[in-house]
Amino acid sequence: MHDSFDSRRSRYASVGVVSSLPGEIIDSIWIIIDMDLKGLVPLDNILTFRLLDKEGQLTIHFSQEGTEVEMDVDLPFPFSDNYPAEVYAYDDGSRETILLPSEIKQR
Questions:
Q1: Which residue of 16, 48, 61, 72 shows the fewest CB atoms closer than 10 Å?
Q2: 54-85 tens-digit pLDDT
Q3: CA dist 78 to 15, 16, 52, 91, 102, Å?
Q4: What pLDDT was estimated at residue 85?
Q5: Residues 72, 2, 25, 98: is their CA dihedral positive or negative?
Q6: Topology of domain 11-103, per CATH?
Q7: Residue 52 in contact with residue 64, Cβ under 8 Å?
Q8: What residue spans define the domains of the chain?
Q9: The pLDDT value given to residue 2
């Protein structure tokens, strides 16, 4: 069994994510995984991140099935209604990808 979300693995964002989120926000999700989540709870191979509007600024909300751990991380970026409501980080054992909900169903 491999350790989910190892920062030494190849990391990607889907075309849908890249076309709907700025690169800084995509990078911030990877940083949240590495700095805030890794070591806090055992991570499944699919992580859920909701993008929330907190007084005009972006807040990323993490949750994972099977655990009661939830976390909000306020980011220094303005919120946009054009952002997807939710994205997933998926680890298939050899590479890691941030995907839209519609894209995860294709895996």
A1: 72
A2: 999 999 999 887 778 889 999 999 999 999 99
A3: 22, 20, 10, 28, 24
A4: 97
A5: negative
A6: Nuclear Transport Factor 2; Chain: A, (3.10.450)
A7: no
A8: 11-103
A9: 55
